[in-house]
Amino acid sequence: MAKQEDNFKNVISHAKEYGFIFPSSEIYDGLSAVYDYAQNGVELKKNIREYWWKSMVQMNDNIVGLDAAILMHPTTWKASGHVDAFNDPLIDNKDSKKRYRADVLVEDYAEKLNLKAKKEIEKASVRFGDAFNEQEFITTNTRVVEYLAKEKEIRERLGRSLGNGDLADVKALIEELEIADPETGSRNWTDVKQFNLMFGTKLGASAESAMDLYLRPETAQGIFVNFLNVQKSGRMKIPFGIAQTGKAFRNEIVARQFIFRMREFEQMEMQFFVKPGDEMRWYEHWKTTRLNWHLSLGLGKENYRFHDHDKLAHYANAAADIEFNFPFGFKELEGIHSRTDFDLKAHEQFSGKKLQYFDTDENKNYVPYVVETSVGLDRMFLAVFATSLKEETLEDGSTRTVLSLPSVLAPTKAAVLPLVKKDGLPDVAHKIIEDLKWDFNVAYDEKDAVGRRYRRQDALGTPFCITVDHQTLEDETVTIRHRDTMKQDRVKISELRSIINEEVSMRNWLMKTI
Length: 514
Hints:
Blueprint lengths: L1 H16 L3 E3 L11 E3 L1 H20 L4 E3 L9 H6 L1 H4 L1 E6 L6 E3 H27 L5 H7 L1 H22 L3 H10 L16 E4 L2 E5 L7 E5 L4 H6 L1 H7 L6 E10 L14 E11 L4 H17 L8 E5 L9 E9 L2 E12 L1 H10 L5 E3 L4 E3 L2 E8 H12 E5 L5 E5 L10 E5 L6 H12 L5 E3 L5 H11 L3 E5 L1 H6 L1 E6 L5 E5 L3 H9 L1 H5 L4
Parallel strand pairs: 3-9, 19-20, 19-21
Antiparallel strand pairs: 1-2, 4-5, 4-6, 7-8, 9-10, 10-16, 11-12, 12-13, 13-16, 14-15, 17-18, 21-22, 22-23
């Protein structure tokens, strides 16, 4: 646990030192759980967003994009259920005065049982070697069976209690499990209470006439209220999807773990409209498709897992999370939900307007069912950044810090380095940049010895360093160094574009998802 905490501190420190993420309003001592994406962070974030958009919209003939307004008519949130039901169960520790998500405390306890089971499995795997039958061991080993059964029992009880609104039982569960304040060890808890997460604001010229509004807590409702507009103007046929990226806002009282849980964050969502009765087929399709998208980035298959929901939201008939192994354990990265026809029917009821699809094949109107995929862009950023940050020991015993980002996402694709700041080498370097910058984000670096410049670019995640030396003046060749292997090749300047493109093109990376 201590090692995990140290690794996470290194992630936060590196993000600031190398211009990826700054605390917001830092000169005024910051604002809790609000962050600014710095010069390199904004590029990485943009690249993640574009990688998602290309795979979701450009590569699917039946999915189109939308950019709905952040401010929406307040009845939107009454219809969606957010006004009445968008709450988190919170619990306070009387001794430490700290506030926690009650469900997260229980889920973290359950996850520890899962980790204990995994340790037993790993030890047995080492002990028995090639003869190890993992499935048989899981079903017969007394400890593993007990750990996993207890984990399942806890998650199911929590799901039932939250689903029934039985907050007293959530507290009872915390007390029965003897869950303590993670920081102080105190078990002196208050009752569990619900807290609404929406930010309120006002719209109007004067306080007297102003209308109460909310900053949107999710981007999905902008898609639902525009369903018929998009369908008719785009002549879309079921099944089809509407995708959107954008800011959402939640008044997170327990906002911790850096950019994992923030008050202002960005979502990448797609609502897929299907014929009633087809939703489970498409639900399974999108679970597989979305996991393949994540795996295409090469962050390690072992870092992903599905978690099926024990407690379903009021709008869903099936739901699963793609969880990722963050520096603080497995947590939700993306949700795939079968939302039934709840949203469109609710907006029909509250607006008095029909939101139905006329199926020409069946010659009838119906309200489509919806399958949703929703991934947090900031969480995606953290998953990529934290997994890519490594300390490596080299053959000569020295160490280097390398941010081995998937090259398709790297903020800067190549850095061009003149060996020395004279003899016309900087001029050649700038000419190379002028040519490459039409296709790639490239940088110029002439400060310090070339070895130190390599290390700096490694820490920034730059896939290639291109060194211009005196031989360049003679034969128009340069040295290109690969970040991950540190291998150096002598190539012609005219070949640089194709070499870089082969490594960083979205086409090549997204082909892995097919």
